Amino acid sequence: MKLLLVASLLAQLLICKAVVKSTQFSGRIIDCDDAEAHEAAVVAVNYINANHNHGYKYVLNRIEKVKVRSQTPSEEIIFMELDLLETKCPAVSPTPLKDCVLRPRREQVVEGDCDIKLHKEGGNFTVLGVRCKSEIESGEKCPTCPLLAPLNDTQVAHAVDLSLAKFNSGNNSVFYLLHEIGRAQIQDTPNFPNVFTTIITEFVIAATNCTLEDAQVDPSKCEVQADENAHYGGCDATVVKIQGKAGDEVTVQCTIYGPQVPAQAPQAVTPSDPLGASQSKVDHRHFHHHLQHSGLPHFSSESSSAEAHHHSVHANHPVKRALTGNPVPPSPRIPLCPGKKIFY
């Protein structure tokens, strides 16, 4: 009887060792606020910004989920879910992300939600795939904040035309075309009887091979500079329509960036007249530039399989038994997620 008991215990020990060996590289737990998780998230956000060629750059706000699946003793696949927030840096701006100003909530922020798949080997992360979506924060969170206007609103298009024309009129060295409209807000001011409407816009311009004089002679010959000569600028403009006045008051300020070539940059719009740019042909969608329209490579979702794999790792752990012989369920540690919000 004792021999049978010893043999049984040895058999269980061997089975336990086999189970541990088989699951040794199956996966591990990373908390959402671990330094390693944030290191992977930084790589992912940089990748998203490098491949997102419309709208604005994004920063990390929170890590929602992290799952690890080990391939070999030195290789792992990491699945992450990230919450992002829009900055005020256009996607074509060369400004480092750390220097980009976060979009304040009073301007109705755009939030991004991204699923990321990364490969880790030798301490280095490589992005394998990204799937993102974005949405505007509800106006209920800031009832007094002005809401975003549609990017193809006729008043917005007119305000951008006037603003770009004014900027080009004082810039004789290079003639610029509209690259894209980034954001717009239309504010009515009924408490001021002399002011009818204020239109605030942000847009990106692209340099052409023409001067203002060239554009006035033959605008059809003006082409956007490409390759090493390509350079862009970000503009903030305000157009005030004053009741009783024929013209509008236009204030525009543009920051011209150094030459750079954004990935897969779309062709700028040909102006309808030599001093302005018609926005009617620009394919803008709704109220902001959605991340899902950025051209990022998609990947097959493995969230469910990763979830199942994650649980199977714990299910295969050696089972403890009570004195009665009945198994005691294991208590695997659950990842501490989601992480803390960095901003709001």
Describe it for me?
This protein is an alpha+beta fold and 344 residues long. 21% of the residues lie in helices and 31% in strands. The protein contains 5 helices and 10 strands. The protein has helices spanning 2-22, 35-51, 154-169, 212-217, 303-315, and strands at residues 56-72, 75-90, 110-121, 124-136, 176-188, 195-207, 232-242, 248-256, 320-321, 327-328. The strands form 3 sheets. Strands 1-2-3-4 form a 4-stranded antiparallel beta sheet. The protein has a 4-stranded antiparallel beta sheet with strand order 5-6-7-8, covered by helices on one side. Strands 9-10 form a two-stranded antiparallel ribbon. Strand 5 and strand 6 (195-207) form a beta hairpin. It starts with a helix and ends in a 16-residue tail after the last strand. The model is unreliable at 14-25, 262-285 and 303-317 (pLDDT under 50).
Tell me the layout of helices and strands:
Elements: H1 2-22, H2 35-51, E1 56-72, E2 75-90, E3 110-121, E4 124-136, H3 154-169, E5 176-188, E6 195-207, H4 212-217, E7 232-242, E8 248-256, H5 303-315, E9 320-321, E10 327-328
Antiparallel strand pairs: 1-2, 2-3, 3-4, 5-6, 6-7, 7-8, 9-10
